[in-house]
Amino acid sequence: MQCPKCGGRGRVNGTLNYGTTTQRYQRCPLCDHRWKTWEENDPTPVRARKTKPKQIERDLFLALENKGKDG
Asked: Which of 1, 5, 44, 64 has the fewest CB within 10 Å, making it most exposed?
């Protein structure tokens, strides 16, 4: 986040959680200005990506099944 005083890049000094809200203490390394930000956490769950099985694994599984039938 940009420093509101000089426009430099701020660094996070500390974080506190209050339920769905997060308070961050930030400091600018250039001008030593300190400030707080309040962030609201989004409660909606993140969707997981659905992965398809790899073709190699499917072919290997079929090869092992067919090997057991042949022997």
From this structure: 44
From residue 35, alpha-carbon distances to 4, 16, 50, 68 in Å are 9, 14, 41, 68
Distance (Å, rounded) from C-alpha 19 to C-alpha 45?
16
Over the Cα atoms of the chain, what is R_g? 26
- 3-class DSSP state of 20: coil
14 within 8 A of 36, measured Cβ to Cβ: no
